[in-house]
From TrEMBL:
NCBIfam families: argS. This is Arginine--tRNA ligase. It comes from Azotobacter chroococcum NCIMB 8003. One of its GO terms (biological process) is arginyl-tRNA aminoacylation. Monomer.
């Protein structure tokens, strides 16, 4: 609807420009917002106040001329002027009802992407295979997954890329430990953290072990067959740990999506040579660097993008540049989204600039760093165990399910054990994910089990329960959402408010896809659940006074249920029919 109103306003502006009321050449950004007070309309725009000065008119005078110039639209019943010159637009209830009726008949709820479909590469998760996944990997994994799901739902072709850390000097240390005690080391691999600590201790305590580790790094990078075999075995075990976490989280990542640092190893000399051929390389203290004037330090000196160390080794920047070239030239991406910690913002700004300067990406390829804040403990510091260690992600999920099980069993002790476990899984995992996704991506947030497992407020349990409330209506009726017919009529205020919000689902998904902000969808679903609660309390459904009104309200409830279910699925949450 906002797009429709923007188009109407643009046509009115064109008409007023042609008539000489507005000067030529104005290209204002037309803002249309949801009205908080529905008695003053459904949408509002401040366009008259923005353009009053260049038009030489008072805002209300220009507002009157804009209303007169607006073309008629079946979607709008009337337009009024409010305050100093706001334009308030009232939706046509009959047109809104017809739109929702069409959405009910569509498996995609009437949602389509505005604009051309794209090939989008989503870089997400990217754990380091030297250790098990920890809480620091949660945000990249689930935020990236949610945005990828939304992009796919809107029709884009999404290519997931799990850029795992599977190459580097630490692997020499791990290979030496695996080589030294193959029998015991194989069993130790069941606990990667313990394996890593044992290898690190040997590296610190034994000069001979450290020398052997360094030798193995050289041999590994030179392609030694035995080193590659051991390295491959280590990666297989590490990736199986990762896949277990992905399955627990309900994240759409598989072995086919993995393209780690090692995949670009053979291309790194070519990256450096291509930069040299472009005249972009400068040697600094023996290292090969790219200096760009737009990136300077506090003293005003250009910052380097180091692509090759003095000893010949390569860095993250080199691998990232190779990945950018691959994603643009081979995967033919129109857009590449990097879900990586916000603290890497400068790294990506510089790498993107170098990639463009070197011609590694097509001119039309969008490179976007979707940075995120940190998950903190109650003390506001990065989340740690009580002894200060890293929290394994799998342990966090175990605890979430255990807490959810105790909560659900306390509320419904009569439920069968298998159903209790199923509900606890959905609620526990959903609570962890939703608590993260509902926060603005760039914000830090404090992890709190009590808050995220609450049935009140903007939480997963609240939304999961809201969905079961809709489902219970149809369970009593003995029918599914798709088994209701009849015509939708929006009469009561609560019906109209719920319907108006349902009609905005596609717009919200478009914003999530454009900005990479899943919290916008969370806020929408929370708002929708509240509007349904008001509708449910004020507009009897099964006890409606006429069959036609009952069918209409059932249709509205069915669309609400389907929208909640689809929205939660796009966030990666499992819905329940009862709790």
């Amino acid at each position: 609807m906002k797009d429709t109103i923007r188009q109407l306003i643009q046509q009115a502006l064109t008409r007023l420009t042609d008539d000489g009321v507005l000067p030529a050449g104005l290209t204002p950004a037309i803002q249309v917002e949801n009205s908080k007070d529905k008695s003053h309309g459904d949408f509002a725009s401040n366009i008259a106040m923005m353009l009053a000065k260049p038009a030489g008119l008072k805002p209300r005078e220009l507002a009157e001329k804009l209303i007169a110039a607006l073309p008629p639209s079946a979607s709008i019943s009337k337009v009024e002027i409010a305050g100093p010159g706001f334009l308030n637009f009232f939706q046509n209830s009959d047109a809104l009802a017809q739109r929702l009726q069409r959405a009910l008949a569509d498996e995609r709820l009437g949602v389509r992407k505005h604009g051309d479909l794209q090939r989008v590469v989503v870089d997400l998760s990217s754990p380091n295979l030297a250790k098990e996944m920890h809480v620091g990997h949660l945000r990249s994994t689930i935020i990236g997954d949610a945005v990828a799901r939304v992009l796919e739902f809107l029709g884009d072709t999404v290519i997931r890329q799990n850029h795992v850390g599977d190459w580097g000097t630490q692997f020499g240390m791990l290979l030496a430990h695996l080589e030294e005690n193959p029998a015991s080391a194989e069993s130790e691999l069941a606990d990667l953290e313990q394996f890593y600590r044992a290898a690190k201790k040997r590296f610190d305590d034994s000069e001979a072990f450290a020398d052997r580790a360094r030798e193995l790094v050289v041999k590994l990078q030179a392609g030694d067959a035995e080193c590659l075999r051991l390295w491959q075995r280590f990666n297989e075990v590490s990736l199986s740990h990762c896949q277990e976490v992905y399955e627990r989280l309900g994240v759409r990542l598989s072995a086919d999506d993995i393209r780690g640092e090692s995949a670009y190893n053979d291309e790194l000399p070519g990256v450096v040579q291509a930069l040299r051929d472009k005249g972009l390389l400068t040697e600094s203290d023996g290292a090969q660097c790219v200096f760009l004037d737009e990136f300077k330090n506090a003293e005003g000196n250009p910052l380097p993008v180091i692509v090759q160390k003095a000893g010949g080794g390569y860095l993250y920047a080199t691998t990232d540049l190779a990945a950018m070239r691959y994603r643009s030239k081979v995967l033919e991406a129109d857009r590449v989204l990097y879900f990586v910690d916000q603290r890497q913002a400068l790294h990506f700004q510089m790498a993107f600039a170098v990639a463009r300067r070197a011609g590694f990406v097509h001119e039309g390829t969008d490179l976007e760093h979707m940075g995120f804040g940190t998950m903190n403990g109650a003390d506001g510091r990065p989340f740690k165990t009580r002894d200060g260690g890293t929290v394994k992600l799998i342990d966090l999920l175990d605890e979430a399910e255990q807490r959810a099980y105790a909560l659900v069993k306390g509320k419904n002790p009569e439920l069968p054990e298998d159903e209790l476990r199923s509900i606890a899984r959905a609620v526990g995992i959903g609570a962890v994910k939703y608590a993260d996704l509902s926060k603005h991506r760039t914000s830090d947030y404090s992890f709190n089990f009590e808050l995220m497992l609450s049935f009140e407020g903007n939480t997963a349990p609240y939304l999961l329960y809201a969905y079961t409330r809709v489902a219970s209506v149809f369970r009593k009726l003995g029918k599914g959402f798709a088994e209701i017919d009849g015509n939708l009529a929006l009469e009561a205020e609560q019906e109209q408010a719920l319907a108006a919000r349902l009609a905005q689902f596609g717009e919200v998904l478009g914003n999530v896809a454009e900005k990479g902000l899943p919290h916008l969808l969370c806020a929408y679903l929370y708002d929708l659940a509240g509007l349904f609660s008001s509708f449910y309390e004020n507009c009897p459904i099964l006890a409606a006074d006429t069959p036609a009104r009952q069918q209409s309200r059932l249709l509205l409830a069915a669309l609400t249920g389907r929208t909640l279910r689809q929205g939660l699925e796009l966030l990666g949450l499992e819905t329940l029919e009862r709790m």
